[in-house]
Amino acid sequence: MPGPFYGVLDVVELRQLRYFLAVAEEQQFARAAARLHVAAPSLSQQIQALEKELRVTLFVRGPRSVDLTPAGGVLLVRARIILSEADRARQDVRTAGDAQPEQLGLRVGTMADGVLGGRLRAVALGIPGLAVTVALSPGDDGIEAVRQARADAAVVWSRAPGQRDLEGAVLGAVPFGVVLPHGHPLAVEHQVRVSRLSDETVVMFPRQPFAGVWDRTLDHLLPGGSKPGQVVVEPDLVNAPEAMLRAVAGGAGIAPAVFGVAEHVGVPGIEVRPLDPGLWLQLEVVWRAPARPAVRRLVSFLLQTATDPDALIHAPVSRPQSVPTPSEAEPRKSRHRRSGPPEE
């Protein structure tokens, strides 16, 4: 972890950070004191001592609640990372003493689990010497979980420019097609030309927390821009990806979907066709630098997903030099598309 995260520890105790975090999350001293099982006056004194040590005001105190100052907001981000790393260090030491597998947390973005198939089940069953907990994470939430050290790594869709503060490696590119209601005039086409979608209503997942992939997808489907009311957002997609397919089956419009997955979700009344030109979205694995050896092993294992014939993903042309890749992880031709993604 970079030095600035730990510079605070020169003058601040972990206990004070836990007290600060409780007050920031509860937004009230009384509730925070009850959560910490300490007296409210004692908690208030600890916060005052912390503010004096750091020479800043962390909270704006109101009659019934407290709000973070700008300095308090900065410390909130740092405190979560520091405390998470401290807890993980404690667990790692105990694990080493017990000769138990090292624990890692992996977040996987919506729909990526269907793309990677059995490889994620293999991760959950365990890489030798590692015990990996796999949890689904809607949209870009996996990126924030890694930033805050609530997860060791995350599999995410194409990142927006502002999300590139984390280290990352491209697993591969995934083909997206267009989902049409049964009987739609374009369903007779072998491939649907994007130019023919300009007047279609497009059913989309929410932009937040899917900003990067949302913008790229809509720009591809409607390169000339959308008209008022042409884009319909299906909010249930965050928790149930098939909700968008059901909306299409019900006549709400057309929608993008992973080509090779949407056909097998089991929603009746839809047709899935490839696009011309094709829409390809990248899957990446991201982590905090510097990566621990266990995280590097997990990343290397995930990079093999592009070589799994059951994964609906095209391997990238080259691999990053910073992450070792097993020699058997060679690029392959997809079984689900005749041609690969365009180079970016």
Overview of the molecule:
By secondary structure, the protein is an alpha/beta fold. Among the domains are: 3-94, Orthogonal Bundle (Arc Repressor Mutant, subunit A), CATH 1.10.10.10; 174-280, D-Maltodextrin-Binding Protein, domain 2 (3-Layer(aba) Sandwich), CATH 3.40.190.10. It is 35% helix and 21% strand. The protein contains 11 helices and 11 strands. The protein has helices spanning 3-7, 14-26, 29-36, 40-54, 70-98, 112-116, 118-125, 141-147, 211-221, 242-249, 293-303; strands spanning 59-61, 66-68, 102-109, 130-137, 153-157, 167-181, 192-193, 202-204, 231-233, 255-258, 270-287. Strands 3, 4, 5, 6, 7, 10 and 11 form a 7-stranded mixed beta sheet that branches. Helix 2 crosses helix 5. The chain is globular, with a radius of gyration of 24 Å. The two termini are 31 Å apart. Residues 1-7 and 317-339 have low confidence and may be disordered.
Radius of gyration: 24 Å
Percent range of helical residues: 25-40%
Low-confidence stretches: 1-7, 317-339
Summed up, the helix count is 11
| Topology-level CATH name of the domain at 174-280 | D-Maltodextrin-Binding Protein, domain 2
- Structural shape: globular
Which structural class best describes the helix and strand composition?
alpha/beta
User: Quick one: CATH class of the domain at 174-280?
Assistant: Alpha Beta
- Specify the CATH architecture of the domain at 174-280: 3-Layer(aba) Sandwich
The CATH homologous superfamily of the domain at 174-280 corresponds to Periplasmic binding protein-like II
Note the beta-strand portion.
15-25%
Largest beta-sheet details: 7 strands, mixed
Q: Tell how many strands the DSSP assignment holds.
A: 11
Average pLDDT rating: 79
SSE string: HHHHEEHEHHEHEEEEHEHEEH
Distance between the termini: 31 Å
